[in-house]
Specification:
Protein name: DUF6194 domain-containing protein
Helix content: 25-40%
InterPro entries: DUF6194
Number of helices: 3
Shape: globular
Strand order of the largest sheet: 1-2-3-4-6-5
Distance between the termini: 34 Å
Number of domains: 1
Radius of gyration: 14 Å
Pfam families: DUF6194 (PF19694)
CATH topology: Aspartate Aminotransferase, domain 1
Organism: Ulvibacter litoralis
CATH class: Alpha Beta
Structural class: alpha+beta
Oligomer: single chain
Length: about 140
C-alpha cells in the first residue's frame, strides 16, 4: 500500500476526519478531539522516535489506537509495564515491515503500528480502524 492509498481510504471512509501535516507526517484528526489524532502516518525518524528506521527510502509507519481487549489479546503477554515506551525493551523489531505491532511509545495506550503495510494486511486491520472510529464517535456524544 502507498501512503496515498491509505490516506484516501481514511478520508473516504471516516466522516469529518481532518488531515493535518507537519514535516511530511500526516495526522488524521477526529472532529471530537483536535489534540490526539485518530491515526497518523510517520514518514521519517525524528528526535523522539527513530526505532522504525523510517529514513529508509519509501518507508513509513501507520499508527492508530485499537480496542483495549483486542490489544491485550494480541500484545498483553509482552510486558506488564505501564507508561510511555513500555514496549521499547521487550525484544520487538520495530523496523519489521508488514506486521502489526504495539506502538513503541504509545503501546500502553492501546496504540499499534505497522511499517509499510501490504494491501492484505491493511485489509485485515480496517476493522480495527472502524472500531476505533466508532468508539471515538460514541465518546463524543
Amino acid at each position: 500500500m502507498t501512503i496515498e492509498e491509505i490516506q484516501a481510504y481514511i478520508l473516504d471512509n471516516f466522516e469529518n476526519i481532518k488531515l493535518s501535516s507537519a514535516d511530511g507526517n500526516l495526522f488524521f484528526m477526529h472532529p471530537s478531539n483536535d489534540k490526539l489524532p485518530f491515526a497518523t502516518i510517520l514518514t521519517k525518524d525524528d528526535e523522539y522516535d527513530a526505532v522504525s528506521n523510517l529514513d529508509r527510502d519509501g518507508f513509513y509507519r501507520l499508527n492508530f489506537c485499537i480496542d483495549k481487549e483486542i490489544f491485550k489479546s494480541k500484545f498483553g503477554h509482552l510486558t506488564h509495564k505501564k507508561g510511555l515506551e513500555s514496549y521499547m525493551d521487550v525484544g520487538i523489531d520495530f523496523t519489521k515491515e508488514d506486521t502489526l505491532l504495539p506502538h513503541p511509545t504509545y503501546g500502553s495506550m492501546n496504540w499499534v503500528c505497522v511499517v509499510k503495510p501490504s494491501k492484505e494486511l491493511f485489509d485485515s486491520i480496517k476493522e480495527y480502524l472502524e472500531s476505533s472510529f466508532e468508539t471515538l464517535k460514541r465518546n463524543k456524544n
